[in-house]
Amino acid sequence: MSENAVMRVVLHAPTPDALLRARNNAANLLREAPKAQIKIVVNAQAVVAALDSPHETLDAATWLCPNTLQRANRQTRDPLQVLPHGAILELAQLQQEGWLYVRA
After folding, report:
1. Is the peptide bond before 79 cis (omega within 30 degrees of 0)?
2. Distance between CA atoms of 18 and 81, rounded to whole angstroms?
3. What InterPro entries does the record point to (predicted)?
């Protein structure tokens, strides 16, 4: 990666434990590479965990799967964001765009 390239990392969290790891991974990465772009993509059981356990700094970088949100019959809360389509499609598209994928 060239010196001028911005590191773009997508962390995938499908479980509550994975969400905790993703938040820790993101915080650690941003501490060491503050210019990195981070997206935490949350689906499956981690969606309810994200809704029920706010994170002061990383919720703004957290994206929820709309399919899981609908199945859970829940609404999002600020600053969490809802993906425009399912998490798996989003993960595939981000990788196609050059984002680095990490399964938390």
Report:
1. yes
2. 18
3. DsrEFH-like
Give the model's pLDDT for residue 43: 99
Adjacent-strand bridge partners of 81 = 63
Provide the whole-model pTM: 0.94
Distance in angstroms (rounded) separating the CA atoms of residues 82 and 84: 6
Tokens of 77: 């809360």
The domains found in the chain, sorted by start residue, are: 8-103 (3.40.1260.10)
Question: Burial letters for 48-62: b for 16+ Cβ neighbours within 10 Å, e otherwise?
Answer: bbbbeeebeebbebb
Token pair for residue 37? 């772009």
pLDDT digits (tens, 9 = 90+) for 74-84: 999 999 999 99
